[in-house]
Amino acid sequence: MELDYNENINEFGDNVVRLYNFDKTEAIKFRALIHETIINKNEKLDLSKIDFIEPRNCNLILGAFKTDEGILSEDNKTFYCVLTLKSYDNMLKLLEPFCKKDTKGYQYLYEVDNPTDFLFSPAGTW
After folding, report:
1. CA gap 106, 79 in Å, rounded
2. Which of 6, 36, 83, 88 is such that its CA lies 20 to 30 A from the CA of 72?
């Protein structure tokens, strides 16, 4: 599984932080990490410290907050996923199809009006 950041992916100037190049096994591991670390323990999840995730040009830290802000960054290198526990619960549901079978589909992992989206894409496409 690889992690990267892509700027200006469309005519609206949107950006995307993307987890890609993975199979069902890694999707299951990622989903379990969110459930255990964020939902059960209410701790932050630093993706650079996960052995099966290879950061390419950025890092992403996920954590539970009181409001849904989406992905934020001051330097376009370190990103913070600022979502409520309810939104992480929803993210687990969005990840479920990738845990059942290998697929070429993709999913945006939150619905927040924010210029940076969080893309989960086994083939890397959107």
Report:
1. 21
2. 36
* Count of C-beta atoms within a 10 Å radius of residue 21: 16
Locate 71 and state its tokens. Answer: 């992905």
Report the CATH number of the 2-121 domain: 3.30.1360
Q: Is 51 helix (H, G, I), strand (E, B) or coil?
A: coil
Residue 108 in 3-state DSSP?
A: strand
pTM for this predicted structure: 0.95
Strands 78-83 and 70-73: antiparallel
CA 72 to chain centre: 12
Q: What's the pLDDT tens digit per position in 19-48?
A: 999 999 999 999 999 999 999 999 999 999
Q: How does DSSP classify residue 79?
A: E
